Amino acid sequence: MQTCRIGNVTVGKDAPIRLVAVINASPESFYSKSFIPSESVVCTARQFADDGADIIDIGARSTAPNSPLIPVHTERERVTDVLRHIEGMGIPVSLDTMYPDVLNAALRYDIAAINDIQGLRNPEYARIAGDSGLPVISMATDIVPGDAKGVKATLSNLSTVISRAEKNGIRELILDPGIGKWTPERTFEDNWELCRHFSDFLELERPLLAAVSRKSFIGDLTGRSPEDRLAGTLAVTCTLMDKGASIIRAHDIRETADIIRVHQKLNQQI
């Protein structure tokens, strides 16, 4: 498996499982408690780091189904406002955006990675990402985010993402199989199948991101609202670590850091 470095953090292969904390600058989020107003972002980032986060992921647009659309300039302003606040804190930052304009604005700050749910489909975005020299986290996307249906299609999309990355000189790549309700065609059972077969994606020889925090397929099974899906999230996360996840993206940092520590202790070779 290839490895990559996000700031001073190595991801993949024999490195410890890494934890990415979500800092959400979007009040439209499906999980309202995850929204962090700009005046609280420094305190929250410090707390996440103290709780065990290795990386902070900044996003300012909700991509959940039926979320209200916002102008690109609004997302750009939100992102740069957060980045201004946390500049120089010393914890690696990744940027979660689909838009070249937002990415260009963020590159004026000290970001350490790029998170693209469009799978590098936008040629301008992919060129900017390649020119930046930064590692990229990229989701299984052909045309629209998360449009693969089933394990075989997800593998195909991820292979396409690898080709796009190589074409644009992106050498360090983390793959996101895209678990979640991204398109109307995607069923809850489709997402459980991606979880059951998560280890299949290891054949692509890239570190894998598990991003399942409080998602709707967990709520469908448990009957819980986003605010009450922590237990289900942690159960799925443990399984995905067993199946080869190198990096976990989460809202609940202290609890997720605990299960990562316990998981690694149980799998420690003596």
Can you tag this structure with a few keywords?
alpha/beta, 38% helix, TIM Barrel, 270 residues
Q: Looking across the biggest beta sheet, what order are the strands in?
A: 8-7-6-5-4-3-10-9
Portion of residues in helices?
Answer: 25-40%
Quaternary: single chain
Stretches where pLDDT falls below 50 for ≥5 residues?
Answer: none
The CATH topology is TIM Barrel
Judging by the overall fold, what is the CATH architecture?
Alpha-Beta Barrel
| Average pLDDT figure | 93
| N-end to C-end Cα span | 23 Å
Radius of gyration: 17 Å
Give the structure's gist in a few sentences:
The protein is an alpha/beta fold.
Structure description:
It contains nine helices and ten strands. The strands form two sheets. The protein has an eight-stranded parallel β-sheet. It has a two-stranded antiparallel sheet with strand order 1-2. The chain has helices at 41-51, 72-86, 100-106, 123-132, 151-167, 188-196, 216-222, 230-242, 253-266; strands at residues 4-6, 9-11, 18-24, 55-59, 93-96, 113-116, 136-139, 173-176, 209-210, 247-250. Helix 2 (72-86) packs parallel to helix 3, helix 6 (188-196) crosses helix 7 and helix 8 (230-242) packs parallel to helix 9 (253-266). The model has no long low-confidence stretch (mean pLDDT 93). The longest helix is centred in the middle third of the chain and has 17 residues, at 151-167. The protein is globular and about 40 Å long. The protein has a single domain (15-266), classed as TIM Barrel (Alpha-Beta Barrel), CATH 3.20.20.20. The protein has 270 residues and is α/β, with parallel strands linked by helices.
